[in-house]
Amino acid sequence: MLKGFKSFLLRGDIIVVSVGLIVALAFSTLISAFTTNVIDPLVNRAEGGGHTIGLGVQLGQAGQKATFINFGALIGAIIYFVIFMAVLYFAIVLPYKAVSARRGVVVFGPPDPVKACPACLSDDLPLGATKCRYCGTELVVQSTAS
Asked: Any stretches that span the bilayer, and where are they (predicted)?
């Protein structure tokens, strides 16, 4: 039972999908901070709303209702994103790459080399392709040894 669970966890697609979801969650935090601290104050200013305190720019005169664009919270979210991605990389991606390398599987590696079709100019064809997948043009097979 534990061997099956270990096999499930070490499947490449599970790790890749979970890393993608974690990156999306962290990126969502950045977008939320930008919306809350930059866009919302601009909309509030157009409506005549209040302000918040932080590092940023105050819109409006001193005697009127002023709106504050809070760049400090956005900078904090960017720092959080960078730290979060570093922890994700060093705690999950690097150990997973090491385990996969011991198993003989390359993950999170450089992309495979590709070639372009001279007829339709598509540039994502594998080096060993003999025919373009888009236009059907016959291609010359390139040697992979240098």
From this structure: 12-34, 68-94
The position carrying tokens 């930059």 is 38
Sign, Cα dihedral of 46, 48, 49, 51: positive
Helix spans in the chain (H): 2-9, 12-34, 40-47, 71-88, 94-102
Query: Hey, where are the domains in the chain?
Result: 2-102, 110-146
DSSP letter (8 states) at residue 116: -
The count of C-alpha atoms lying within 13 angstroms of the C-alpha of 3, restricted to the half-sphere facing its C-beta, is 0
Q: How far apart are CA 129 and CA 127, in angstroms?
A: 6
pLDDT at 4 over 60: yes
The 3-state DSSP class for residue 102 equals: helix
Residue type, 93: V
∠ Cα 39 41 46 (to 5°) = 100
pLDDT tens-digit series, residues 94-113: 888 888 888 887 777 777 78
pLDDT exceeds cutoff 70 at 82 = yes
Alpha carbons within 13 angstroms on the beta-carbon side of residue 43 total 7
